[in-house]
Amino acid sequence: MFRKVLINRMKTGVPGLDRLLGGGLPESSFNIIAGKPGSGKTTLANQIMFGLAGPDCKAIYFTAMGESGLKMLRYQQQFSFFDFDKINHIIRFIDLSDDLLNGAYDNVFKRISKEIQNFSPRLVFVDSFRSLVEMVEMEHNSQASHSSLQRFIQQLAQQLAAWQATTFLIGEYNESNVNTETNPVISVADGILWLSQNLHRNSMVRKIQAIKMRGQDHTPGLHTFRINNHGLRIFPRAVLPPEIEKEKNDNTPFSSDKRLNMGVPGLDEMMGGGLPAGYSLLLVGPSGSGKTVLATEFLAEGVRRGENGVIAAFEKSPRQLLSHKLHTLLKDETVGVINTRSLDLSIDETLYDLIDMIEKLKAKRVVLDSLSGFELALAPEFREDYRESLYRMISVLTAMGITVLMTAEVEDRYTDLRFSAYGNAFLADAIILQRYIEIGGQFKRAMSVVKVRGSAHSKDIRLFDIDGDDIQIGPPLSQYEGILSGHPTLPRLDWHTPGDVP
């Protein structure tokens, strides 16, 4: 009778990688880290090694002809994950250059076997394996070298499995090399991580893909990542939760019994009792109409009720956002600010940062200010599927029980009514529209609730004013006399009254 074998998954410590792999790296697996020069292969390998290595998990890093061990160490020690205390007694670096120059695969295999037997590592890295292969191929004809390579790979894989080592071959491969029929290295691999970097106009975008990962459910597709002083930071692609996919397919109506107060007297009444929890609200208006002020009131009201919040700023810097009220919230650490003004963002990167801060603050409310600024901050490559990716991002947040307020700027044309310059109204469960209207020779601000899905709401257009950090909503416009309307089919608002409106 056979027993089910459970394979332990090793936590790499690389932000986002374990989630992409489906929980971590399978123990005693045979893996390839591949990609073009400069894509981050060696940095990822070192980051994994230093993250996993310890007294009970020693590691050997073999370097071939691609880059000398001393040169590699010189640059890798610039990253924060590099730990000098682990060198030699926990992590060893071995240079295979002399073995390659003096012989073929047999010499290399003997050297690798000897070092592993003496040190008993649980992690083994060979970098660059592609250089090792090319060196031997230069010394032999292609048919003989292919046969020798296949025998070498099989021997190495079997031997390392017997030693219960988790192995990584690092190599400079391109798409034509990743063919299991012609490349024996690829055929025996348990896992393949593919790294790439693409230049689109002036924007550099790095991506990683788990092409293969035996025995576990990894996240398919391409995922963006960045390299900073801490190494790689991976942002797994947003995937809709099953319940959202079900709702999308069978049109199951969403309902929420809990209502959130907006923090503006009179607005909850206009919305039919407040904003249902877990809804996405689109707040639309021209520049200066008060969108950020209302968003701040939304966050402040949440804090008063024990619901922390997060604001992602895509247009203004955190310093520009610091009204007295928001400054107090930030100081008390009840609201977190994500400064996303750096260019070449991806939606997955933004979602990763949001979820990280949401979990840190146990937040229930999120503000995205604004969607128009967000699109401009994205790398050009991601703007093509912006609407679909944004839909997935909002769906993931609301599926977590987060209530999302999004602001969007539209030009006030007076002759037409639009809810988004970028066609984002489909994202929203609720829509609030802010406008300017002309009354008594002055511009006045007006607000109306356009939509609250599954709920009755006021149809009134109401004037409002901003007093410092507070919004004050006035009576409906229907109470004023002398209102002239334009074409009956257009929302034309040429309002005039005999005097100033209070």
Account of the 3D structure:
By secondary structure, this protein is an alpha/beta fold. The chain contains 16 helices and 24 strands. A 9-stranded mixed sheet has the order 5-4-6-7-3-8-9-10-11, sandwiched between helices. A 9-stranded mixed sheet has the order 16-15-17-18-14-19-20-21-22, with helices on both faces. Strands 1-2 form a two-stranded antiparallel ribbon. Strand 23 and strand 24 form a beta hairpin. Helix 14 packs parallel to helix 16 (386-399). It is elongated. The model is unreliable at 482-502 (pLDDT under 50).
Could you give a quick summary of the protein structure above?
The chain has 502 residues and is α/β, with parallel strands linked by helices.
For the sheet with most strands, the description reads: 9 strands, mixed
Give the neighbour order of strands across the main sheet.
5-4-6-7-3-8-9-10-11
Q: Tell me the total number of β-strands.
A: 24
Number of helices: 16
- Overall shape: it is elongated
**Which segments are poorly predicted (pLDDT under 50) over 5 or more consecutive residues?**
482-502
Helix coverage percent: 25-40%
Structural class by helix and strand composition: alpha/beta
What's the end-to-end separation, in Å?
86 Å
Strand content: 25-35%
As a whole number of angstroms, the C-alpha radius of gyration is 29 Å
Name the average pLDDT.
Answer: 81
